[in-house]
Design brief:
- With about 190 residues, the protein is an all-beta fold.
- The chain is built from 1 helix and 15 strands; from the N terminus they run E-E-E-E-E-E-E-E-H-E-E-E-E-E-E-E.
- The strands form 3 sheets. The chain has a 5-stranded antiparallel beta sheet, with no helix packed on it.
- Strand 7 (about 80-85) and strand 8 (about 90-95) form a beta hairpin.
- The longest helix has 4 residues, at about 95-100.
- It is flat, with a radius of gyration of 21 Å.
- The N and C termini lie far apart (about 50 Å).
Length: about 190
């Protein structure tokens, strides 16, 4: 069982027999009263986001999920298709809204972990940092102080990332998938 103080970003739990994940949380301390937690939570089946207040007396059941090995196959019209690596006949679909920014960093053949709840794929795990090939980059303009020092580049998945002016097409860059930000250029030896 989880108490209100266990609610942190990413914690999954059952509320009214529905799976939820904490997106944001804020502890609120009252003078003589007990603390509460104001949390933004997402229904993992419908992707509906609600705000709820949890009190010290609230007890929540931790969500029991099954972790499986997945391979991303392809995407079509906002749907992302995965197969179970251990049983390729088992296929799963996630919609773009469920994936959020993770959809920007998926490329065919990418292997990852997924989480099942009652045989339904809830979401996938991405490494915090991943390497991508830059397929399109405009030449960086050198100039005065008004230049921001970055330019948009397109990586192999089609996502647009802000990168330093020296990055060119063909470079391999490391990207923080949580923030969608450039980390560094990878020098191949």
């Amino acid at each position: 069982m989880l108490s209100h103080s266990d609610l942190k970003k990413g914690v999954k739990f059952l509320l009214d027999n529905k799976p939820y994940e904490v997106i944001e949380f804020n502890f609120i301390f009252k003078g003589r009263g007990q603390s509460t937690v104001q949390a933004k939570i997402k229904n993992l089946l419908t992707n509906e986001v609600i705000t709820k207040t949890f009190h010290a007396s609230d007890k929540l059941e931790e969500l029991e999920t099954e972790k499986i090995d997945l391979e991303f196959i392809y995407s079509k019209k906002g749907e992302f298709f995965f197969k179970d690596i251990n049983d390729p006949s088992r296929r799963y679909i996630l919609i773009e809204e469920a994936l959020g920014n993770k959809s920007l960093f998926l490329k065919p053949g990418f292997k990852t972990n997924g989480y099942l709840y009652k045989d339904k794929l809830l979401n996938i795990e991405l490494p915090i940092k991943m390497n991508f090939k830059v397929i399109e980059a405009s030449p960086g303009l050198r100039g005065g102080r008004e230049q921001p020092g970055t330019k948009p580049v397109v990586i192999e998945t089609g996502a647009v990332i802000q990168a330093p002016l020296f990055i060119k097409a063909g470079d391999i860059i490391e990207v923080n998938t949580e923030k969608g930000e450039y980390v560094r250029r990878i020098i191949e030896k």
